[in-house]
Design a protein that fits this description.
This protein is mostly helical. The protein has a single domain, classed as Serine Threonine Protein Phosphatase 5, Tetratricopeptide repeat, CATH 1.25.40.390. It contains 19 helices and eight strands. It has a two-stranded antiparallel sheet with strand order 1-8. A two-stranded antiparallel sheet has the order 2-7. Strands 3-6 form a two-stranded antiparallel sheet. A hairpin with a 2-residue loop joins strand 4 and strand 5. Helix 9 packs antiparallel against helix 11, helix 11 runs antiparallel to helix 15 and helix 15 runs antiparallel to helix 16. The radius of gyration is 23 Å and the shape is globular. Keywords: Cell outer membrane, Membrane, Signal.
């Protein structure tokens, strides 16, 4: 990754390593009083670094990494010939929206949120107890609170009715809060603390991406989704939050869409909130999209050493939504496959690996999906030489400047009775121009419908963990698509996991489960 991450990556490595170390003679800092260890800013930041290590679990495919991806119309993991990818029916259940509280990913997503929240509460307690003072301490406290707000934002989206806990010393079992109460809490946390944050990351604080721009992106999401999450409309507030991002110095659309996803994407002026990964400097939770999606023969295309698993693909209808001239279609690998030297990649003596858009079935034991059914994801650069259990070095993109433009356009359209005006069209066309390189494919006030906007969001933000939220907001989540029947409104929330219910008797399961 970038050389400016090295200093901060030590904090991430410390945070990840403490959970798995086996040296019995090491000092265990977690048992030292705050006034005995957190004696200066550097030591405080070592502790705060644990929050950013926790964020790397955002791509864990048995938790947070699946709740926003698998089950949408942009991702499918079919049961394939040679009995690949059954996994006790997990991916089939997610795809068909047949959720239950015992699915591993439910507990994984819930733990991602509440482990992060508990960690933030502990750090804030230690900061309050420590007598050390320095000029940036209020900013660091605000940074931790914004990180905690992000974990609550995810819990609010996925599970809705969750406990609010902010006191690390409180050992009582927390009460369940309503989704409205959680929404109010998260908005207040952001608005109370945003003033103390840096506008944007700098070379001095690379990796610490809880900034004003990040916080305003989170506010924009909260306001735009308020009808579903709070039962009220907050479109003016959504526009104000996106304007705050758009007017922040230093952010702009990258001229090359794919430059935002390279192995060295730290210099992107478009990426607002990222989770840093690095194959040597961020151990523990790693980024492995190449393993999720590519057939193992594709190692020879990208120079990979790691064995890849031939699983994740996109649905044919989603792929077909791209215009052939749309540069973003290169997000996907389609057609006969070749090695880096141009040699055909052969599944057998007579069968070349051919990533076709069509997928035979989600789950059919007698006529399963083929090994090469489904086009494969390659938006993120796959760095040559990656080994087994080694992370990609790309920063995972959570929020981008393009989304600020698109969210503002959507809010304007919703204010205008779901009809585009020229202001909305101009915002969307800023993004669309990059995809085509000309104005021949621009939207007009007649062609930019709400359905067209949702489809454009799909193409622009494919596999960036926005699709589930978007489909719910546009009232499409419960519609039928390939191998998924029409659902019901209860499934716009996931079930609270059984483990959480067992631990906290104050929790009541979400409706419909």
């Amino acid at each position: 990754m970038k050389k400016i991450i090295i200093k901060f990556s030590l904090l991430l490595a410390f945070a990840a390593g403490t959970a798995s170390c086996t040296k019995l003679d090491e000092e265990v800092f977690s048992s030292i009083p705050a006034d005995g260890f957190f004696r200066n800013e550097a030591e405080v930041m070592t502790n705060v670094g644990r929050i950013y290590a926790q964020l790397r679990k955002i791509t864990n495919r048995f938790g947070a990494g699946s709740l926003d991806l698998v089950g949408t119309d942009e991702c499918i993991i079919p049961f394939r010939e040679t009995n690949l990818w059954y996994d006790n029916g997990l991916w089939i259940a997610l795809h068909k929206h047949e959720y239950n509280p015992n699915l591993q990913v439910m507990n994984g997503g819930y733990s991602f949120c509440f482990d992060g929240i508990s960690m933030a509460n502990q750090i804030l307690f230690q900061l309050a107890e420590s007598p050390v003072d320095f000029p940036s301490k209020p900013k660091i406290i605000a940074e931790v609170k914004i990180a905690r707000a992000f974990f609550y934002y995810r819990a609010l989206d996925w599970f809705g009715n969750v406990p609010i806990s902010t006191d690390f010393k409180d050992v009582t079992i927390p009460k369940q809060s309503t989704r409205t109460e959680v929404w109010d809490f998260v908005v207040k946390e952001i608005t109370d603390n945003i003033q103390f944050l840096d506008d944007a990351p700098t070379t001095a604080n690379y990796g610490r991406t809880c900034t004003k721009a990040m916080a305003n992106m989170m506010l924009a999401k909260l306001y735009l989704n308020a009808p579903k999450w709070k039962g009220t409309t907050k479109l003016d507030e959504a526009i104000a939050a996106t304007d705050a991002v758009i007017n922040t110095n230093g952010y702009s659309l990258s001229s090359d869409y794919f430059s935002n996803f390279t192995a060295n994407n730290g210099g992107s002026k478009e990426n607002i909130f990222v989770v840093p990964y690095d194959k040597t400097k961020t151990p523990g939770n790693i980024l492995q999209i190449h393993c999720w999606t590519l057939h193992t023969l594709s190692q020879q295309t990208f120079g990979l050493i790691a064995f890849t698993w031939d699983g994740y693909a996109t649905l044919e209808d989603f792929y077909r939504s791209y215009d052939a001239n749309d540069k973003r279609i290169k997000t996907w690998m389609e057609g006969p496959q070749y090695s880096a030297s141009g040699a055909p990649l052969m599944l057998s003596a007579t069968r070349q690996l051919n990533y076709r858009p069509q997928i035979k079935a989600l789950y059919n034991t007698t006529n399963p999906a083929l090994l090469d059914d489904g086009v494969r994801f390659k938006k993120y650069e796959y760095e040559a030489g990656l080994r087994d259990n080694e992370s990609m070095s790309n920063d995972w993109v959570v929020f981008r400047y393009a989304d600020a433009l698109m969210m503002k356009a959507e809010a304007i359209m919703r204010k205008n009775g779901n009809v585009a005006n020229q202001a909305a069209v101009d915002l969307v066309n800023q993004v669309r121009f990059r995809a085509f390189g000309d104005h021949a494919h621009d939207f007009t006030t007649a062609t930019l419908t709400m359905d067209a906007l949702l489809a454009e969001r799909g193409r622009e933000f494919a596999w960036e963990y926005h699709r589930r939220q978007d489909l719910i907001r546009f009232n499409k989540w419960n519609e039928a698509w390939f191998e998924k029947p029409a659902g019901n409104v209860n499934h716009e929330l996931y079930p609270l996991p059984t483990q959480a219910l067992n631990v906290n008797p104050n929790l009541k399961q979400n409706t419909g489960y």
